[in-house]
Design goal:
heterodimer; A: about 300 residues; alpha+beta; Lipocalin; 2 domains; two-stranded antiparallel ribbon; B: mainly alpha; about 0% strand; globular
């Protein structure tokens, strides 16, 4: 009985604390609620500006060169701003960078055709966008709310309006770079100097390279069988699997996949969760691919089959 | 001179015993991946086509997995040709080895060979291996019954060389993947042959040179 009481009390306290923490988020949901109510009253204006604007998000950062040296330079990321609704006094939408999807709210200045958009502020990477519309392009800057918490508190944006469409036939193509630069494997190599006869060892690194199977196997258009996957390496299968998610506009958290798909002109990251958009066949293929990726990971180079 | 020679051969024997012990441990670990019995674990992860379409596949597969580990052990204990103070130890270990191969491990191995990964190249290899395995073991059994022990010993070495292909096949895989990083089924088509052909050639050489 005593234990039950204690548990109840502690649960209650946790619930209370949780409420406090969520204070800001509750505000947000209230926002969207009022927004919904507003929509009946307040007419939407400038519907022609709705849509996805995607492009470069550039800020100062450290870059590691091939020989391992670090220097300061411009770091480019891909960002998408989704404008969902514009009313007389408010703009609603979302920003998405590297799988981090944030709602924003702001205002639209009709005379200068510019937006001021604020993210909620309860995430380290939240900030304010100040962007200007010029026919189909959206350019401007972003300032972090918490300037000391992020590496690049000021960033510039250069976006173009793009129509997001799901097309199961989109794939990587032969012009794309198929090297995975993000997961180098280090190994020691020996080198013998021919003149002195001295042997020295040095560390070299190797990157994974995908095969042209990623141009041929499409998990969105064909039902895959075990036979189709048996002779593929892990990276190939990872790309084939993630192509499905890329087609649905998934914003990848892993740099490996961002690098592959951002090379294409069709990839537009619009969401950090597309699971419910997958077709039944895509879901089956992804499950099969997951099993084979796991097998490749566990067994490819180990004592076994 | 004779003493040195004898010492060297004892040393080689000890090394072989330690080596077998290590690889037997690895094989035991692989076997334990299949306990508890599941339809989609380890190697079966890429065999769901067969598991789904052929209701008998899992029976043959698990017969092979669960008996083969004892085949390895009993075969090794018998090939030492010592009784370790136990009456008929060699004979009994040999009986278990023969019984398990002839009735379970070889027939199930041949069945799985028919559905092996890596296409016709590997299927042919595994099926030949299975038949040779069964035949050499059967021959060794017959010769023991006829008390032709010299030939019994030779055929047992042939049989055990094929048994050991379970280990050598996996050793070759590690080596080839380390050196060349080929695609998984390309490795497989190579190791299905490398696993047993060199083994049997070595034994034939030793028999021809009258070492066995």
């Amino acid at each position: 009985m005593k234990i039950l009481k204690l548990t109840l009390i502690s649960l209650f306290t946790i619930a209370l604390v949780a409420c406090k923490k969520d204070g800001k988020t509750t505000d947000n949901s209230k926002d969207s609620l009022t927004a919904k109510k507003d929509s009946v009253v307040v007419p939407e204006v400038y519907k022609e500006y709705y849509g996805v604007y995607t492009g470069d998000f550039a800020g100062k950062g450290m870059i590691t060169s091939e020989d391992g040296e670090q220097y300061e330079g411009e770091v480019y990321k891909k960002i998408s701003l989704k404008i969902n609704r514009i009313t007389k006094d408010s703009v609603y939408g979302q920003s998405i960078v590297e799988g981090n999807q944030r709602p924003f709210r702001g205002i639209f200045n009709e005379s200068s055709k510019s937006f001021v958009l604020d993210e909620p502020g309860n995430d380290k990477y939240d900030g304010r966008f100040e962007v200007k519309l010029n026919s189909d392009s959206l350019t401007g800057k972003w300032n972090a709310f918490n300037k000391s918490a992020v590496k690049a508190p000021v960033k510039s944006l250069k976006l173009v309006k793009k129509e997001f469409v799901y097309n199961p036939n989109f794939m990587l193509n032969k012009d794309n770079d198929l090297i995975d630069w993000e997961n180098p494997k280090n190994f020691v190599e020996k080198y013998t100097d021919e003149e002195t006869g001295k042997t020295e060892s040095y560390t070299a690194s190797k990157n994974r390279i995908a095969s042209d199977a990623v141009f041929k196997v499409n998990a969105s258009t064909q039902k895959l069988s075990e036979k189709d996957l048996k002779n593929l390496r892990k990276l190939d299968m990872e790309i084939i699997k993630n192509s499905v998610f890329a087609r649905h506009g998934y914003s990848f958290k892993k740099a490996t996949y961002r690098n592959f798909f951002e090379q294409t002109d069709w990839y537009i990251p619009v969401s950090n969760n597309v699971d419910k958009d997958l077709s039944p066949m895509e879901k089956e293929n992804v499950a099969l691919l997951n099993r084979f990726i796991k097998y490749a990971e566990d067994k490819y180079d180990s004592f076994g089959r | 001179m004779l003493l040195i020679k004898r010492n060297i051969s004892t040393l080689i024997k000890i090394l072989l015993i330690i080596g077998f012990g290590y690889f037997f441990w690895l094989m035991l670990k692989i076997t334990l991946e299949y306990i508890p019995l599941r339809a989609d674990v380890s190697f079966l992860m890429i065999k769901q086509t067969e598991v789904g379409q052929r209701s008998e596949y899992l029976y043959f597969f698990y017969t092979h997995v669960y008996t083969s580990i004892f085949v390895l052990l009993s075969g090794f204990l018998a090939i030492l040709r010592k009784d370790f103070g136990l009456k008929n130890f060699h004979k009994n270990a040999g009986k278990i080895y023969i019984f398990l191969i002839l009735l379970f491990a070889a027939p199930s191995g041949i069945y799985m060979g028919i559905f092996a990964n890596g296409g016709i190249v590997s299927k042919i290899s595994f099926v030949i291996l299975g038949f040779l395995w069964w035949f050499s073991t059967f021959k060794a059994y017959q010769l023991a019954r006829q008390k032709k022990f010299k030939e019994h010993k030779q055929w047992m070495w042939r049989s055990f060389a094929l048994t050991i292909s379970a280990i050598t096949l996996r050793m070759w895989k590690v080596i080839i993947v380390y050196l060349f990083h080929p695609n998984p089924m390309d490795v497989y088509q190579i190791i299905v042959w490398l696993g047993w052909v060199p083994n049997i050639l070595l034994i034939e050489y030793l028999i021809a040179k009258k070492h066995i």
